Amino acid sequence: MKKLALFSLALLTGTLVMAQSGKQVKWTYSAKKIADKTYEVHMTASIGAGWHMYAQAGGEGPISTKFTFTKNPLVAFNNVPKEAGKMVKKYEDAFKAEVRYYENTVDFVQMVKVKSNAKTSVTGKVEFMVCNDHECLPPDETNFQVNIGG
């Protein structure tokens, strides 16, 4: 009986901790037309006070931010998203490596070209990890959809 109670407590604690990562980062998504059939898709992370989120090339150890885009025959992607924000480069003892991260906010900008005049969307998911000076929360994932074209 004790083992069942301990297992249940561990499972509940793990679920609550996993839910915390998403509470430390709020995502917003938008698109801006910059030329005929060419758009900037903005994926902006607002990071909770005292926390930081790792860059796409975050370094050895932490989970770097990663975007996975759903294939869409109407959309051509141009490279990986660019990062706009104040990047911090710092050696962290916990990882025994230099890491790169953002505090407060970072805007990831993906350039896309629409292959026709049809309305469509850019969809996918973003995986990210946040830490503060005392702990790192488990990686989290969120889905997104941004309408473009038309």
Question: What do these coordinates show?
Answer:
- Helix content is 15%, strand content 59%.
- It has 150 residues and is α+β, with helices and mostly antiparallel strands.
- The chain has a single domain, classed as Thiol:disulfide interchange protein DsbD, N-terminal domain (Immunoglobulin-like, Sandwich).
- The strands form three sheets. It has a four-stranded antiparallel β-sheet. A four-stranded antiparallel β-sheet has the order 6-7-3-10, with no helix packed on it.
- A hairpin with a 4-residue loop joins strand 6 and strand 7 (97-103).
- The longest helix has 23 residues, at 2-24.
- The protein is elongated.
- The termini are far apart.
Would you identify the regions where 5 or more consecutive residues have pLDDT less than 50?
1-19
Indicate the percent of residues in helices: 10-25%
User: What is the chain-wise order of helices and strands?
Assistant: HEEEEEEEEEEE
Q: What is the mean predicted local confidence, pLDDT?
A: 88
Structural class: alpha+beta
3D shape:
elongated
Biggest sheet descriptor: 4 strands, antiparallel
Q: Write out the CATH superfamily name.
A: Thiol:disulfide interchange protein DsbD, N-terminal domain
Strand neighbour order, sheet with most strands: 1-2-8-5
Cα radius of gyration in angstroms: 18 Å
The total domain count is 1
CATH topology: Immunoglobulin-like
Oligomer: single chain
Please give the number of β-strands.
11
Strand content: over 45%
In DSSP terms, counting alpha (H) and pi (I) runs of 4 or more, how many helices? 1
Q: Assign the CATH class.
A: Mainly Beta
CATH architecture: Sandwich
